[in-house]
Amino acid sequence: MKKAIYFFLSALALGAFSCSEDSNTSDSLGVAFVNQEVNITQSSNQVNVVFSEATKKSGTVTLSIEANGVTYGTDFNTNPVAVNNTITVPFAAGATSATFTFNKLIDATEGQTKNAKFTVTAVTGIDAEFTSPTNTTRLNFNEVPVSSKTISPAVGGNTFPNNVYVDLSSGVTTNVARTSWELGFYSGTDYRVVLNPGINKFAVKQLATTNIDEVQTSDANVTTGNYDPAGAPYIDHPYGNLSGTAIAAISATDADNKVYLVNLGQNVSATPATGSNAALTGTDRGWKKIRILRNGNGYKLLYANIEATTHNEINITKDEAHNFSFVSLLNGALVNAEPLKQKWDINLGTFMNYTQYNGQDVSYYYPDFVTSNTINGTRVYEVLTSEFTYDAFTTANVDANKFNTTAAADRRAIGANWRATYPSASLKTDRFYVVKDAAGNIYKLKFTAMVNGSSERGNITFEYIKL
Known about the structure:
The protein is mainly β. The chain has 1 helix and 33 strands. It folds into 2 domains: about 1-145, Immunoglobulin-like, CATH 2.60.40; about 150-465, no CATH class.
């Protein structure tokens, strides 16, 4: 379809084109793009370079082309055809514009920048006036989700040093060292602080005191992943709902905000596992004590070593572009530990989960675990191949009622359900997943590998198709 891009002259632009009182007898005309930027939605587009009044003679407008992320002839072309990144557009006597056709041959995938900039460099046949910036327009290629992709997220092998965020619409992956942060400060309206579920043995316990400078001692009972029901409250509830955080909501009344004892858990194992095992036990990372207060529309973190009688402070501003702002207690600094909230849908790596043991919830540390960005609206449900095969599943088969649209949506909808570990690490080939991102794009997704050719864990591969 061909679509005309109309660059209507504003009053300001008309003022800029005004000539002297004898302009009706002058050949001097204003030449401009009124809109300096346009998002292209159609494959074929008519682009107008407008004149301040009708021309008395025929002539040409010459434009230079500056391509950004695109190649002429491959990603776009024009009519008239460009030569050496220059296009010459003819116009007739009596014309109010010079028109050329811009053909977009490829869309931009989300996360990519693709555009072509056109600049008027010369006009023949008339005495023309053109000045920056109105002599330039930039045509942006609209972003579209990828239609299908196979991804092998770089979790780093069977020691699982990385948690990997995946944006399905762009296919972009972001690797984050799983021990790079401990605390995440919520950017929404509530005042909540989450724990890093990717660190083995990481745990917090609320103390009775509000005095951060009071000396504390380590407590061997404050740990996780040991099948002890008493440790379950020392981690965030794994479903991901903020009402289940181990750290209580941060009160506007300072006296209500207690000190917490923090077991920093374990480092990544220095020794890989053999066979299809996972190596998850590393050296101890030590202990801290923390207290968190509100600070205007943000937070104030007080932290110290447990034996210290003084403390350090970090002010955290809520960042609306991200779900959370993240802090490394070991480094005493804010860190980048998650993509923009609109730029990821699922996360793969390690996760401190609950499991049932003697009829009670106990914490258990999982490798090869997958969570979804439920806080920003990603929703997932599982489909068994006894209902539909992956290849045959289409948009018509999507059951919107299975997307939990409430705030209580469980981020573990994929979790560890996609794989088995007994008698050996293997895929469950009887299921796949339907994922809807925050923008409403829907994908079918299946896992195709859990180990590499040497049967080593931490070598996940999955594929997905946009429905």
